[in-house]
Amino acid sequence: MISVKGLTKRFGENTVLDGIDLDIATGERVAVIGPSGTGKSTLLRSLNFLEKPDAGIITVGDVTVDASTASASEQRAVRRRTSFVFQNYALFANKTARDNIAEGLITVRGWSRAQAQARAEEILATIGLAEKAESYPAALSGGQQQRVGIGRAMAADAEIMLIDEPTSALDPEWVDEVLQLLKRVADARQTMLIVTHEMQFARDIADRVLFMDGGRIVEQGAPEVIFTEPKDPRTRAFLRKVL
Amino acid sequence: MRPLDLDYMLGLLPVLLKYVPLTLAMASVAMVLALALASLMAIVRVLRVPGLDQLTKVFISFFRGTPLLVQLFLFYYGLPQIFSFLTAIDGVTAAVMGLTLHFAAYMAESIRAAIIGVDRSQWEASLSVGMTTAQMMRRIILPQAARIAAPTLVNYFVDIIKSTSLAFTLGVTELMGAAQKEAAGSFLYFEAFIMVAIIYWVIVELLTMVQRQLEVRLGKAHAR
Ligand SMILES: Nc1ncnc2c1ncn2[C@@H]1O[C@H](COP(=O)(O)OP(=O)(O)OP(=O)(O)O)[C@@H](O)[C@H]1O
Ligand SMILES: [Mg+2]
Fold first, then answer.
1. Which of A95, A235, B147, B208 is the most exposed place for a label (fewest CB within 10 A)?
2. Distance linking the first and last C-alpha atoms of chain B
3. Which residue ranges make up each domain of chain A?
4. How far is the CA of A17 from the centre of ligand 2 (A)?
């Protein structure tokens, strides 16, 4: 369960998140859509403290923090409960595929190296990359790297997986394998908040779609509703452009 | 022009080679200490640790802004007059200390540049999984920065080896000091100093070969 109240983030004069309220139930899969520059990435990054919000209360599972004053250890507590999948994969360049997945288990959750690597190999098998365990990111295709990125997030066993445009940095040939893997993660009822430009995909996997504009959630609802009978003119205008 | 005294030169070789271990030991100890100190200073600079950051800046500025020879004299001849407990320090220790601080200042800047050169995504990925800053530095950022900085750091090791010759001005009989003594006895200055030059040259050439190997290896690392 995750709950956000009044989440606000400014870059100088620019208010990028304008008091976001958001509750996500365990097992719920929420897709975020909206025009470029409306704060979708900033929302995800704020929930992972990659940005320090200016105001707001964040609850993730058993942890509640005041986002603007959260201490380093409170931020880590939130990060531990929110895994992140990056647009540009951001795999650890000096670690093999296996160790990319094992790293957080060792450093953050205190597992032994052997335990963590065994778990990492299970996950690699799940994501169809068992034979790439020893490969470094530089030797993997974009699609493979992003699958490892998703594997790393799976290993975190987090309350919620935050996924920011997982396919938009990929060559078209790799998009399908990544979406298929994400579909499986969603089907397993992993709680997720995913920003995507793949509208069909959002429609397939999401329980709820949020439309963001100007740092606010303008409209939200079940995908059947949002995609077929959006109420807000801004949502309509956006969907007309992208569908 | 007088002919070279080749027999003297050949006879000098084993005498001088005996001092190579001391030169390499001084350089190696200074290198290891300088690396440790430089890494700490680089981290302090990159993370802008309040107070320490300013202190480090001044330290780096001083040790880069003054000649090594002046620093060595200050350590060996000057400081013991102010702090009497330093009187017991011998020339070798003073030279190693001086080389350490001097080169740490240079290496700190290279390491800092290398740390900054590690892609931002590596920091974000480390933090996003919940690592502490120390874990991120030790396991993700520094190993990648080391690859970037390694060739430059080998260059500094070469510099340190050559700079150990200044220890002879502190009364240390190392490679250069030995050559100086031999020359003073035989008056064959050219023979003595060309021999010592050749020895330094060979050492540095060997190291340069190692460096090239290292670069090839580092180029291949993490690409598999
Ligand atoms: N580090 C930063 N410093 C200053 N401004 C920033 C920073 N990061 C984002 N912004 C600004 O915040 C706004 C929202 O950016 P954000 O990346 O969250 O948008 P987005 O909805 O994810 O857009 P896109 O669909 O293009 O990814 C933009 O105006 C952007 O320029
Ligand atoms: Mg974005």
1. B208
2. 60
3. 30-48+71-242
4. 13
